[in-house]
Amino acid sequence: MPDNRISLGQGILKGLALTIKHFISRPIITVQYPEERLVTSRRIRGCDLVWDSERCTACCTCAKSCPQGNIHIETKVRPDNTREAVVFEIDHGRSMFCGLCVESCPFDAIHMGRSYERATYNRDSLVIPKEKLVAQGDRQPSGYFRPQFEETLPPQSLLIYGGKSSEVKTPENPPPQSPATAAPVSEKKEPAEREKVGVK
Amino acid sequence: MQDAGLSIAFWLLAIASVGSALAVVLLRNVFRAALLLISCFFAIAGLFVTLGADFLAMVQILVYVGAIAILLLLGIMLTKEAMRGSPFSRWQVGAGIASVLLLISMIWVFNQTDWPKTNTEVALEPTTAAIGLKLLDMDAGFVLPFEIASILLLAAVIGAIVLVKEK
Amino acid sequence: MDWLHWIIYVVIILAFVLTLVMSFILIERRVVGRFQLRLGPNRVGPQGILQPVADAVKILLKEDIIPSKVDRVVHLLAPIVTFAPAVLIFAVIPFQQAGNGLFFDLKSTASMVDLDVGVLFIFAISSISVVGLVMAGWASNNKYALLGAMRTIAQMVSYEIPMVLAVLGIVLIAGSLSLADIVDKQNIPFILLQPLGFFIYFLGATAEMNRSPFDLLEAESEIVAGVNIEYSGMKFAMFFLGEYAYALAVSTITSVLFLGGAKFPWGLLPQSFIWLLVKILLVFFVILWIRSTLPRVRVDQLMGFAWKFLLPLSLINLFLVAAEGMLPSGFTWPIVALNVTLAVALVVIWANRFYRVGGAKVA
Question: In terms of C-beta density within 10 A (0-12 exposed, 13-18 middle, 19 or more buried), how is residue C281 classed?
């Protein structure tokens, strides 16, 4: 029965004490973005696409499945009667990152990326040719529709899982690396996974 | 120099107050009229300052601008037909005659009265304490009117409460 | 020499108000950020100290929109009428007392004009800003602006009464309406002699300047932005600066009336404008503290709080001061103890009673 005691004033004082305690002693809990970053979800549908040139057979299924026709492929027949993509361009500026190309690829050659920074100074730089489309640096395939990658990726760090101190990545961009060596954990497992997929 | 400055201030404030008072009456936009009423109050406060009545000037702003004019504006905001001008325009002939008569009689009274002349040098002294003493002095002051006024105000407050009290 | 005095003080006051208002904006954002366990703006310049400059440049370059059906003259005048009184208040603020100071000595009080009716001047001038808000609310031709303006009127007219009555206690103790005299009389800060008066004044002033928890004027969840909804660019900046200039004015007036102005407590150190500055920042910090703690009150709670809680208490306070004025002088510390006890007891008793009779509930 709160009406039976002297109740007005206590609550306000309690609140004031709580806020001043936060002011004095609680650490900052927000992520200072350019310097600190959280690890994204392992299945993130990032805002780029990662292409694997070795696995691609230039079947153009991804280009056909793209609702917006963003993927531009020109192919050439090799002597051994296989095909090779001479031009493989994706217009990230028009992409809505629906992931249909990733889901439709029969050879697991195109993946969603994990990056979330897509700001550029002009639209032309959003059209990414095949040399830059492969996994390198922070362009890494995410676990979206690719469970073989998901197990190898670092777990997501969230503020609600208890602070940011341990999970936070360092601000420096990792130096450009080959896709297999980019994530230390994934380094060993990835070839094996690929073998399995290839067999299938 | 002092006198010249004072007369310039007086004439400016007089023109401002009379001008805005006229505009209050003549403007069709009620809200603007109320705003000009505020500027009229201001000009009158300025006139009090030129007369050395600092306390009165401040009370003029505090009470008339800060309270009465604001409540007037609130009244206008709550009035549905505020944008259509004065609804009492059919009385304009009678009102004109009445106000002209009032003006004539006031001018006559002002001319007839033997006003005590004040010296501006003396008048620039603080007046707050003097007003307080004059109002509340038992012998030579106005303590009875003061108390009657406060009882009147108390009655008004109680009356307001009774009017809005729920049954 | 007279003209020189005016010009110097106009420059000083403008510089004081504008720099402090700019820094108040930054301080508020940083401090409230800290209260909410985040950093606040820290990108522009070292520790974000250039953030107000960046904001000012941004807002100056914004398009100045005048909606088609507004009352143009009133619409344009409203921000000026709101902002100007906030600066005018500082004309009577004594920045340092006459006599020996910490860094330099002064022959007379360092204020633009030491009005004999300084306290009245402050309340008279600050009541003008309502007119500006009402003008903005009416002229904007917008229902939210009008609602905000009507809330402003109700709030300001109600809270002015307990606020002025609380300050009357100070005036009674000091025996003067001049701010320089009031500071001179404060051998101990008046907050100790007038704890209840300080409480009422501070809450009333918080409501007067529309700070949280009394910021119903621009309650975003209800009336979008209140009176300044149709304003953009520099005109909005005038409202924004005006709000902070009022916060500065209230902090300054509180420091001068209740905390001893430029004096160091008990005169342990020579007086200086630095102490005034420190006190201003301290009061502003408390305002921010309250802002980051309490949620916004409802309209009925707001009016009930003014009329049923603050007003009776301020009347009681006035009677107490008058009664204590009849005591012979020399009982400073017993009176301080008595007043603090009475203030706490009265607030608790009245708060409980206010709560019991349903003052905080919908009628």
Answer: middle
- Compute the distance between CA of residue B76 and CA of residue B30 in angstroms, rounded to an integer: 8
Q: Tell me which chain C residues have a C-beta less than 8 angstroms from the C-beta of B160.
A: none
The 3-state DSSP class for residue C270 equals coil
Enter the tokens of residue B27: 């403007």
* Residue of B35, B55, B78 lying closest to C117 (CB–CB): B55
Cβ distance of A15 and C294 shorter than 8 Å? yes
According to the model, what pLDDT value does residue B98 have? 93
Q: Which of A12, A20, A22 sits opposite C294 (nearest CB)?
A: A12
| ipTM > 0.85 (yes/no) | no
Token pair, residue C198, equals 């300080």
Number of A/C CB contacts below 8 angstroms equals: 47
B10: domain CATH number is 1.20.120.1200
Residue B93 lies in a domain: no
What are the domain boundaries of chain C?
Answer: 61-356
Residues B73 and B15 in one domain: yes
Q: How far is A130 from chain C (nearest CA, A)?
A: 37
* Domains of chain A, start order: 30-199 (3.30.70.3270)
Domain span including residue B138: 126-167
Dihedral sign for Cα atoms in the order B157, B158, B159, B162 = positive
Single out the residue in B84, B105, B138 at which a domain terminates. B84
Q: Please report residues of B whose CB lies closer than 8 A to that of C6.
A: none
Q: Is B33 on the interface with C (CB under 8 A)?
A: no
Q: Are residues B68 and B17 in the same domain?
A: yes
Tens digit of each residue's pLDDT (9 = 90 or more) over A54-102:
888 888 898 899 998 889 999 888 888 888 888 988 998 888 888 899 9
